[in-house]
C-alpha cells in the first residue's frame, strides 16, 4: 500500500466522499494507479452535474474519490456546481504533493 493509499484509506474511515484537487496537474498518474477496494474513482472533466447526481442520488452509499486537476476557478466563474461537495470538518479535502515538492519541504 502506498502512502497516498494509506492516507486516503484513513480519510474514507471518516467520510464516504473524498475530493482531491491537484492544483499543479502533476498527480493524475498517481490517481489512476491507486487501488482502493470499495472506492469508486471519478475524474472531474466538465461532468460535474452527472457526478453530483451519481454521488448524491444514484449511489448514495458508495464511497467516491473525486479527482480534479488544475487550479480552482475564481468564485465568480464557478457556474458549474458546488462540487466542492460540502466538506465536513471531520473530513477536510485531501491534498497530495509531487515527490519533488515533498523533497523540497523536508529540507
**Would you identify the regions where 5 or more consecutive residues have pLDDT less than 50?**
86-90, 100-106
The coarse silhouette is globular
Helix content: 25-40%
Tally the helices. Answer: 4
Number of strands: 3
SSE string: HEHEHEH
- Give the termini separation: 26 Å
How is the main sheet built? Answer: 3 strands, parallel
Q: Give average pLDDT, whole number.
A: 78
- Evaluate the radius of gyration: 14 Å
Broad structural category: alpha/beta
Structure, described:
The chain has helices at residues 3-14, 28-33, 48-58, 99-106; strands at residues 17-22, 39-43, 63-69. It has 107 residues and is of the alpha/beta class. The chain has a 3-stranded parallel β-sheet. Helix 3 (48-58) links the parallel strand 2 (39-43) and strand 3. The longest helix is centred in the N-terminal third of the chain and has 12 residues, at 3-14. The radius of gyration is 14 Å and the shape is globular. It starts with a helix and ends with a helix.
Concise account of the structure shown:
By secondary structure, this protein is α/β, with parallel strands linked by helices.
Amino acid at each position: 500500500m502506498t502512502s497516498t493509499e494509506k492516507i486516503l484509506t484513513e480519510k474514507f474511515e471518516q467520510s464516504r466522499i473524498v475530493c482531491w484537487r491537484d492544483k499543479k496537474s502533476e498527480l493524475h498518474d498517481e490517481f489512476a494507479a491507486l487501488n482502493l477496494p470499495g472506492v469508486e474513482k471519478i475524474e472531474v472533466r466538465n461532468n460535474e452535474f452527472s457526478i453530483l447526481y451519481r454521488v448524491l442520488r444514484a449511489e448514495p452509499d458508495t464511497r467516491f474519490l473525486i479527482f480534479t486537476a488544475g487550479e480552482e476557478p475564481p468564485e465568480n466563474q464557478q457556474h458549474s456546481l458546488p462540487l466542492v461537495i460540502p466538506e465536513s470538518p471531520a473530513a477536510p479535502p485531501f491534498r497530495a504533493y509531487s515527490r519533488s515538492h515533498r523533497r523540497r519541504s523536508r529540507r
